[in-house]
Amino acid sequence: MEQEIKNAVGLGNPELVIESKPKPEPELKPTVTIYDFGRLLTENEPSVKKK
Questions:
Q1: Residue 15 and residue 6 in contact, taking contact as beta carbons nearer than 8 Å
Q2: CA-to-CA distance for 3 and 22, rounded, in angstroms?
Q3: Could you read off the pLDDT of 5-49 as tens digits, one per residue?
Q4: Is 12:6 a contact under the CB 8 Å cutoff?
Q5: Mind spelling out the 3-state secondary structure of 1-51?
Q6: Is the CB of residue 12 less than 8 Å from the CB of residue 2?
Q7: Is the pLDDT of residue 50 over 60?
Q8: What pTM, to 2 d.p., does this model score?
Q9: Cα–Cα dist 13/7, whole Å
């Protein structure tokens, strides 16, 4: 019974388990860059009616 308690608490296993580091996610490249921004604005702006 004592051994079962030690195993449950983690004292029964003398080995240390090394946790692996999480792999960093690859950086996402932006689909719209600052260079495209001006072009997108002019393409999608509603036409301004002058009086």
A1: no
A2: 33
A3: 877 776 666 666 677 787 777 777 767 778 888 888 888 888 766
A4: yes
A5: CHHHHHHHHCCCCCCCCCCCCCCCCCCCCCCCCHHHHHHHHHHHCCCCCCC
A6: no
A7: no
A8: 0.29
A9: 7
